[in-house]
Amino acid sequence: MKKLFAAFMMLGVIFIMNDAQAQQNNTKSTWLWHTHTITDEQTIHFLIEKEVTTVYLQIDPALPNDVYAAFINRMREANIEVQALDGGPYWNTANFDALWAWISQYHQEYPASKFTAVHLDVEPYLSALWEQNRNLAVSQYQELIQHALYKVRCTELRLETDIPFWYDEVLYYNQFGEGNLAEWMIANTDGISIMAYRNTVAALKSITKNEMSYAKKYQTPVVIGVETMPFPDEPYITFAAEGEIKMNQVLNQVVGHYAKNRYFSGVAIHYVQSWQGLRE
After folding, report:
1. So what's the pLDDT on residue 144?
2. Fewer Cβ neighbours under 10 Å: the N or C end of the chain?
3. Torsion over CA: 242, 245, 248, 252 (sign)
4. How far is CA 66 from the centre of its chain?
């Protein structure tokens, strides 16, 4: 009888673990760049209706802090977490410190309405230095990430970042050692969103294969992001022509493919305003 009871208990634990894993794999994130729309009921209803679980919210210091607090509270009621998003091609530690000072001041003023993470979208590959001195550009980028990680980990927040899918082809040899940039980023952050901008299951699986293996190696949650903005000259990188139904079908297959990787943390859709204009 005791053995039978133990077997039932073990089955219960397995079911709970599988359910938790399924919930993790079903997370749905999105980027909200137009910060002023957080007061817009249409935007709020869209996020809830689409069952978004995480919003990467661009920080605009010009907006009053109580506007952020009200939005975060509305999102929390819908079980949606909000991450503080910022970045740019020429970002450095001074830029991060300015963002960090704003977040710290906001959290002091509204301790019950905090962000859950700092989310960086830094694009050094769009800077002139990337072409002039790739290794130096990568080194400065790594310094920024390490600086941000040190600051953030002194708090209860997480540091998450966006990376393009091709960072596994960017090699570095500097004070941080040697290797490829995708692996380094996954090893040195608390979460990654891959800008895996393709619109077929085969392509999405192919270009994220290495990153998902690194996710397992370093136990770092990784999200796979897709695009909805129109790109007439490169239609294969977006779902603008295919529409939302096709996008959801593809994303569901990607979720199924990575279901056994416990560090696959779901999908992300770029971005709210273009997603709102996507046909069914």
Report:
1. 98
2. N
3. negative
4. 25
